[in-house]
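Preliminary data (for renewal application), uridine-diphosphate-N-acetylglucosamine complex.
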Amino acid sequence: FVIIFNTVHDPLSASIGFSLLGCVITWRLVPELKENFIKINLSGKDLNKINKPVIPESMGIICATVYLICLFLFIPFPFMEWFTDKGKVITRREEFHSPTFPHHKLGEFLSAMLSLQSMVLLGFVDDLFDIRWRYKLLLPTIASIPLLMVYYVNFGETHIVLPIPLRFLFGGYIDLGYLYYLYMSLMAVFCTNSINILAGINGVEIGQSLIIAISIAINDLLFLNGSDPAVEAHLFSLYFIIPFIGVSLGLIMHNWYPSRVFVGDTYCYFAGMTFAVVGILAHFSKTMILFFLPQIFNFAYSVPQLFKLVECPRHRMPKFNPLTRKLEFSKVKLQKPLNLPTLLSLKLFSTFGLIKIMENNVNNIDKKKIIDDDKKDLDYIEVNNFTLLNLILLKFGPMNERTLTICVLIIQVLTSCLAFFIRYRLVHLFYEI
Ligand code: UD1
Ligand code: MG
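Predicted structure:
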């Protein structure tokens, strides 16, 4: 009774309660339902195992559904003071000259949930139909529209404060106008897709998302003693992030190496959209970007392949060597003569030591015996696929799948430490905080 009484009056405790519930339900539901996914062919081969077992895919849909139900049930809690003990509350509110129900706050909640729900739906459609890469970019833009609408109505703020070193050029503030809305929808596109392309080994999609979510929660908690508007915004963020951590923990128990289930694009989109929603509506998109540094690196590194300057195979994940049972960096064959964009990309990345180019060693073969067409096919070079996972393997040598996941997670944790250092120590160099 004490717990129930406290949760009614303290939405944060309620959120933690729903998070625990979400964790347990996801953890129990996934094994219950996984056979049904296999039956309808929602499954994928675990490519980095000896016998390539077929395991259920798109389990993110279970995790996201449980999350949304938790949030639906949670909606009344932040507004409980309006439903209970109303007389007293109104008197207290009148002191702040705001005696009416905070419809704007409810609007924010509902729009955030609508965006998340749309993103989960579109992510699931992607899992079902394997949508082409260029259309994948469009999905989060569509899902972010309700969010932008509420931002426009509630805040409409499109000014940004410029960092001190840039002020001599543009002044203190700059109004980005509609570009600000473009920036916010690009943020949704980036958060979702960047998690989806830092993927392909057991546990890495949820692992990175969990570390980002925990970092966001820590950042929010640091603000709770501050001024009123910041507290409201960061409480809003916590209400979305805490249950996210819960359901993700429930799912990672089945997705950690060796995976019994795959999370699918549904989870990647769901996670990315959760981060975009809180970053935008709680106004800390710059800090959010700092938490995404590994994903930004992986995206920038991937650009030549994503934009087809260099050939991009369907899967760029590392390659499993059955003899050593370790993962090695995967390669892509580039037929000679190389075109100019490919040559420039290779030159740029090799200057920074980011790629390894391997010349074809069939020169020793007696070419006279090979007919002309075949000779052409043999004229190629190989280069590692441009992803962070392959780069780690290139620099540190082959390793097993779990070790590689742990390496990525360590990088993610170090990034968060760096992000906190920049946000709370170096920030004084850029802003008057
Ligand atoms: C993105 C990447 C692709 C990478 C794939 C892995 C880009 C442009 N696309 O594609 O290079 O190979 O993610 O998820 O960078 N799988 C495993 N083990 C895992 C996770 C996934 O073997 O731990 C395999 C399974 O066969 C699974 C498939 O990857 O069915 C899922 O790939 P999908 O999410 O559809 O690939 P994309 O997101 O399109
Ligand atoms: Mg994917």
